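Sample intake sheet
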Amino acid sequence: MKTSEQFCENCGAANAATAQFCQYCAAPLPFKHTTGTLPEQTLLNSRYQLEARIGQGGMGAVYKATDTRFNNRPIAIKEMSRSGLPANRIQEAEESFEREAHLLADLLHPNLPRIYDHFSEDERSYLVMDFIEGLTLEDYYEKADGSPLPLEQVLNWGEQICDVLSYLHTHQPPIIFRDLKPSNIMISESGHVYLIDFGIARIFKPGQSHDTVALGSPGFAAPEQYGKAQSTPRSDIYSLGALLHCLLTSVDPSEQPFFFRPASELNPIIPAELELLLQQMLEMDADKRPSSAQDIVKVLRHVEQQRISGTLVAATKNTARTTKGSQLLQDAYVLYTQKRSRDAVAAYDLALQTENLNPQAWQGRGLALALNGRHHEALESFERALRLDSELITSLNGKGTALNMLHRNKEALDVFDKAALLEPDNAVTWNGKGAVLSALNQPEQALTAFDIALHFDMHMAQAWNNKGLVLRQLKRYPEALRAFEQALSFDRNNITYWNGKGLVLYEMGRLKDSMQSYQEAINRSPDYAPALYGIGNVLYTQNKYKNALDHYDRAVKSDPRFVKAWDKRGNVLGDMGRFSMALDAYEQALRLDPRYAPAWNGKASVLCQLERFEEALRAYEQALRLNPNAPQAWNGKGNAYYQLGNYDQALVAYERAWHLNPKMASALHNMSLVLRQLRRYPEALDAAESALRLAPNDPDNWQRKAEALRKLRRTKEARAAEAEVARWSHQA
């Protein structure tokens, strides 16, 4: 399937590079380019040093080169020569080359090479862009030596091509690629797809009846590209259909343009759904083709899901009749995609009565069990699948996720590492590994794993969300916010992504924006407890206690086991002076999770308010056993000791709180108070002045200073401090 070609000056059709006459209009083809003749080590534009010619076509040549001004980074340089062109073609050729340069400069997409520079030199024009290490689809096709390429591989490539076509077609103004063929698609070593030649791409102009010039490659170009009508996004869809048909059947469409046998007649593994899609894409009438690349990618993804689940149904007559077991598997998978997890598990159990040795059946059962939160059973199912097929990547990923959910994090990490060795470019694997590393409190390594996942699938919303959660943990809030917004750009209806964005905005102090994000989640799921809790936090911060309490109540009603909501409910009730109800809320939180330190701290604070100081002291000690570095708990423990008259222990607790948080003015204030009780007046004065440096407008801090000064008999200064007490108390 050689695709080097020259284009007819008369009709614009592509012809073989060796042809002397146009195969479509019979016009002579005298025009020959003189590109691709530059020797190695040639220095272009005083910075780009050529290494080797890596491509040659009728319209130009491509070289691998290095950029000597940027650490000799590898680049690709596309060359177009004006030599030999008739005068009426020079301007046209230059305009075409400039068009490609400006097109690429305006585009930013992971499946398109980036353009860095363009220039002219010695009657040649040059375009400088990313150098992509890999093979073209033409290379893959030729290596297959007449055999169809694997379905899994073609589906993956097709999804990526759909993604970039969707980007081009929805660009303003829309861009039609118009030359989608194997030699214009590069596959990197990691399996990433790039469109590499925009030489005949054009801006779509609504209302135009036909293209000015007929362009495209025979067999891959749509009928309307031959001057009959204007090329549109559906022209690229036709070309993609021809490309997929070619890869799946090994039949070169250029040998008999516009004629495509049913794909399943040539390759019996082609499923019925995919065959129907190809027929629609290859319709001669453009209006009968799918309307967008997004319509195509939905079908490709559904076929891939069926392939993974073992429910794929071939289109050929010999395999169209499914067995009872495979029909049950198909029914089970449909239930799984509808998130009817219990029904799906029951259907898989029924199917396994006849498909007990089918690894995909055990895998599907594991996925359905995981969806239902039954991680122990899911783990068993994935292990059964892997005993039947040890390299089943989806089962390895499922097993790793189940182990992580069961807090067997180190075992999960080993499983994901094994999956990454088998399939290094699997984004789901890297995302799962990132989640495990985060659970193991290795946030930087987790971020690296999420970035690798996004390198292989930048549209993986879950990986963006997980990255946002880790960045928030690291308090890198602007980056976390961007990550959540990226997740939402791919899935705007996911309530957990809205909730994550709301949480970051709340911690950034952007309360209004935070409220809007939480509300977006509530609009989609009115009883979503985390968002109700988040709105409660915003209202609590705004001192709107009653409204905050209403939202905490709704959160615990929706999820009675929501420990944080019970804890915050206790906080707001305590601030409202409803101490008995606050105590009940804290105790409910601790019944659910006896190791939740903030609830012990809150309970202790309320017990102090109820003057049950011995009980408060025991609660503070429990909080500190769980989290010995909590300054609020140490400060509260000091208060309990103070009320019990144990000033020495109170001072130790206050000093510990201040050591943990040197900006904690209340701890310094309390130190001053207890030091006065211990008659250590100079130290009491120092503590009061330190508190004032942190909170100069707090009348209580001025009061502590005045009291210490009185004890030191510095009456004049004490009066001045008392005047400050009066001033700030009045302003408060």
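Comment: The chain is about 55% helix and 10% strand. Residues 87-105 form the longest helix (19 residues).
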